Amino acid sequence: MLDTYADETYYAEEYLCGRDAVIQAAYPFYARDATQRIRAATCGNIDESNVPDCVKMCCCEIAELLYTAEQNAKRSAV
After folding, report:
1. Are 6 and 56 in contact (CB under 8 A)?
2. CB-based contacts of 21, cutoff 8 Å, min separation 6
3. What's the longest Cα–Cα distance across the chain?
4. How far apart are CA 25 and CA 40, in angstroms?
5. How many other CB atoms sit within 10 Å of the CB of residue 10?
6. pLDDT band at 78 (very low <50, low <70, confident <90, very high)
7. Cα separation of 78 and 60, whole Å?
8. Are 59 and 6 in contact, with CB atoms under 8 Å apart?
9. CB 9 within 8 Å of CB 55
10. Is residue 4 within 8 Å of 34, Cβ to Cβ?
11. Residue 18 phi, psi dihedral angles, 5° rounding
12. How many whole angstroms separate alpha carbon 21 and alpha carbon 77?
């Protein structure tokens, strides 16, 4: 079983397409959480021996959303 559907290299080189990274630290943590959420939503029906690009992109997007939500919650708590 894969740790994440999209590793940090994929995030930086493929997903971002030259944009600045939203996730400034701990990308693997957020990607792992995103992967677990995708697995749950798809009932584990992703072929992990050949993860499609659309799933990798989705993993990166969800990871960014999770990171952003956490950062916003930290700012609101202050």
Report:
1. yes
2. 11, 12, 27
3. 44
4. 25
5. 19
6. confident
7. 28
8. yes
9. no
10. yes
11. 90, -10
12. 24
